[in-house]
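Exercise 7. Given the encoded structure of a 286-residue chain, write a plausible sequence.
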């Protein structure tokens, strides 16, 4: 992208030089149609290359070319042609892109997007991301050996980006962590802290914004264990509705257990299908 940016700077200097010449020329000089046409061609080249440069920035912002094509309402094949310079968007597509990302037409086709521009867009997208309800129930396995196999219940309260995670016992709060969540391309991270217990982190697959509200899913939880406050990583189920732990014990334990079938673990992660299975389980309880 550095080479492309350098080319844009050279073209921009060429355009400015020729425009200054025409602006300072007499009326008779402007009658040279070929010179005007040549300048217009250079301006088009500048617009086209600038748009391609900015388009690549937007693809990175949206994570994939497919995601951007879907967002601006064109086929992936047409977007590829935009990216290669084989085609240039219609005026309505350009206006739509400007409206979606909150930028001017000049910024889109005449000025290369800067890091600050992209950060502002990311902040704007994050601000629009609002699929969470205010309260969720949380379930995860007890780590205390004496109570092995039992399932903890807790609540997660979300207001804007502020988060409170409460672990319950017999309906009473026994641990409480608070903090905020942050959004990346594919993940949401809850960074929480308790003065007495230390830190807790929850990492989840970014919910599908096409769903009106996040109903539930499977996440990764890291916090000190009950037994001796050693670091512990385990699965965490979030659910909009409260789940009867006795009635659905087998299903909950199956969702919350790590299964390796005797194989050594190089790493542990939550897969998309596990998250969908958890969502389907919670949604069927309605």
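Solution.
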């Amino acid at each position: 992208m550095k080479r492309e940016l350098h080319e844009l700077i050279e073209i921009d200097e060429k355009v400015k030089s020729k425009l200054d010449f025409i602006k300072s020329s007499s009326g008779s000089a402007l009658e040279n149609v070929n010179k005007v046409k040549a300048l217009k061609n250079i301006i088009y080249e500048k617009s086209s290359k600038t748009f391609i440069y900015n388009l690549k920035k937007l693809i990175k912002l949206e994570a994939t070319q497919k995601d951007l094509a879907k967002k601006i309402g064109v086929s992936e094949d047409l977007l590829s042609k935009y990216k290669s310079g084989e085609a240039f968007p219609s005026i309505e597509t350009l206006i739509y892109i400007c409206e979606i990302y909150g930028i001017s037409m000049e910024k889109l086709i005449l000025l290369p997007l800067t890091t600050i521009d992209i950060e502002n867009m990311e902040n704007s997208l994050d601000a629009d991301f609002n699929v969470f309800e205010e309260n969720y129930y949380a379930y995860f396995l007890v780590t205390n050996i004496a109570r092995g196999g039992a399932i903890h219940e807790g609540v997660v309260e979300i207001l804007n980006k502020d988060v409170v995670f409460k672990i319950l016992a017999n309906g009473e709060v026994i641990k409480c962590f608070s903090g905020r969540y942050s959004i990346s391309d594919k993940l949401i991270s809850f960074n929480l802290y308790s003065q007495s217990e230390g830190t807790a982190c929850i990492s989840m697959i970014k919910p599908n914004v096409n769903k009106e509200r996040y109903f539930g899913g499977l996440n990764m939880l890291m916090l000190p264990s009950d037994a001796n406050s050693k670091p512990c990583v385990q699965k965490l189920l979030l659910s909009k509705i409260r789940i009867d732990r006795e009635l659905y014990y087998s299903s909950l334990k199956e969702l919350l257990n790590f299964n390796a079938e005797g194989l050594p673990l190089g790493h542990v992660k939550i897969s998309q299908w596990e998250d969908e299975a958890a969502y389907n389980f919670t949604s069927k309880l309605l």
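Remark. Residues 2-128 form a domain with the 434 Repressor (Amino-terminal Domain) fold (CATH 1.10.260.40). Students should compare their own answers with the one above.
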